[in-house]
Design brief:
With 66 residues, the chain is an alpha+beta fold. It contains three helices and two strands; from the N terminus they run H-E-H-E-H.
Length: 66
């Protein structure tokens, strides 16, 4: 999928799900690691406790307006 996205010069967006399984103090470290490994924008997300849900949805809506 990553190669396809790059071939069409689309932005790389990684949504890290299940952040409710990670200590809140470790979330930023995980996000930074994923960003370093894969590049692009990294969005933490948890539907379980709604952590970051609004920010992720807002980001995706704004992306469609560009």
């Amino acid at each position: 999928m990553r190669e396809w996205v790059q071939a069409y010069n689309l932005p790389i967006i990684t949504v890290v799900t299940k952040v409710d399984c990670i200590k809140r103090s470790d979330i930023q470290r995980v996000v930074n690691k994923v960003k370093k490994d894969f590049g692009g924008d990294v969005l933490p997300f948890s539907s379980e406790d709604r952590f970051y849900c609004e920010k992720t949805i807002e980001y995706l809506i704004n992306l469609t307006k560009e």
